């Protein structure tokens, strides 16, 4: 089964929710502060220092993963941002509403399938993505999942 994406879906899903990662970082910061206070209060008990170091390392690991995710999301958003004007251009060129155009990829690449109403076309892009040609395509499995 192929999955096709509409313009409204691509527009709505450009922003990824990073709430869980921010929450984890806040919890680790809080745990580092708590263990630091406990260590300074009870300097002879080194378990608090060790726990503080562990939580601090977990915080650094979480921050590193968050930075990686942010970079990946920025790249993906930039690629998705190319797709929306492309879909609007296809709709304008074929005289249909943008709601009637869907694609099977969230990024603009050569060889993606564009569905205009019920007809499928393969996209051939120029190397710098400034023009395209559509070639009629026939999909093997006609069951599609349209995400709006």
What does this structure look like?
This protein has helices at residues 7-12, 19-41, 47-94, and strands spanning 2-6, 101-103, 113-116, 119-125, 132-137, 144-147. By secondary structure, the protein is an alpha+beta fold. The protein has one domain. The protein has a six-stranded mixed sheet with strand order 5-4-3-2-1-6. A hairpin with a 2-residue loop joins strand 3 and strand 4. The longest helix has 48 residues, at 47-94. It starts with a strand and ends with a strand.
Overall domain count: 1
Mean pLDDT: 85
SS-based structural class? alpha+beta
What oligomerization state is this entry in?
single chain
Low-confidence stretches: none
Radius of gyration, in angstroms, nearest whole number:
24 Å
Shape: rod-shaped
User: What is the topology, as strand order, of the major beta sheet?
Assistant: 5-4-3-2-1-6
Distance between the termini: 16 Å
Bin the strand percentage: 15-25%
Keywords:
six-stranded mixed β-sheet, 3 helices, rod-shaped
Summarize the structure.
The protein is an alpha+beta fold and 148 residues long. 52% of the residues lie in helices and 20% in strands. It has 3 helices and 6 strands, in the order E-H-H-H-E-E-E-E-E.
Topology:
Layout: E1 2-6, H1 7-12, H2 19-41, H3 47-94, E2 101-103, E3 113-116, E4 119-125, E5 132-137, E6 144-147
Parallel strand pairs: 1-6
Antiparallel strand pairs: 1-2, 2-3, 3-4, 4-5
Helix pairs in contact: 2-3
């Amino acid at each position: 089964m192929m999955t096709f994406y509409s313009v409204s879906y691509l527009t709505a899903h450009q922003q990824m929710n990073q709430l869980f990662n921010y929450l984890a970082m806040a919890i680790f910061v809080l745990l580092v502060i708590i263990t630091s206070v406990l260590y300074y209060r009870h300097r002879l008990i080194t378990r608090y220092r060790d726990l503080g170091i562990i939580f601090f390392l977990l915080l650094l690991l979480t921050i590193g993963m968050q930075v990686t995710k942010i970079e990946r999301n920025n790249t993906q958003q930039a690629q998705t941002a190319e797709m929306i004007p492309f879909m609007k251009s296809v709709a304008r060129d074929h005289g249909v509403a943008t709601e009637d155009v869907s694609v099977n990829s969230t990024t603009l690449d050569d060889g993606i399938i564009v569905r205009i109403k019920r007809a499928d076309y393969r996209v051939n892009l120029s190397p710098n993505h400034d023009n395209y040609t559509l070639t009629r395509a026939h999909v093997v499995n006609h069951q599609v999942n349209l995400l709006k």
